[in-house]
Amino acid sequence: MARILIADDAPIMRELLANLLVGGGHEIVAEARNGLEALELYIKHRPDLVTMDISMPVMDGIASIRHIREIEPEAKIIIFSALSQQNMIADAVRAGAWDFVTKPFYENRVLDVVSKALATRNIDAE
Q1: Residue 122 belongs to some domain of the structure
Q2: Which positions does the record annotate as the modified residue 4-aspartylphosphate (predicted)?
């Protein structure tokens, strides 16, 4: 079981991800509506993994990734974006995202990416 922070400005996306991840045996420690909240909640909760939307108000996902990685260089962050945001996906990966999932997403893809990210986190810790 992992402790996960969900960051997305769309309430329905947060709910869908939370239900999927809880169903997969994980704990949702917090939900953020924008990149600034994601940064603040990351500092407060130090989750094992973050799911991050790219396009959010106040602070976008890419800026939030950069700030989180300054605090925790090994942070595992999975970016979520629409297919039309390919250039932003590349920017997010350069900023330190571990992987990405395109919206709309397949449940199996999300669970697979989360599982792989957590497996590498466990290896990194050893």
Answers
A1: no
A2: 53
The answer to whether position 113 is within a domain reads no
Backbone angles phi, psi at 54, to 5 degrees: -75, -50
Residue 28 lies in a domain: yes
Number of domains in the chain: 1
Could you tell me which residues are beta bridge partners of residue 99? Answer: 78
Per residue in 48-65, pLDDT (tens digit) is 999 999 989 999 999 999
Distance in angstroms (rounded) separating the CA atoms of residues 41 and 87:
27
Cβ atoms of 100 and 89 closer than 8 Å: yes
- Other C-beta atoms within 10 Å of 79: how many? 27
Query: Is 118 domain-assigned?
Result: no
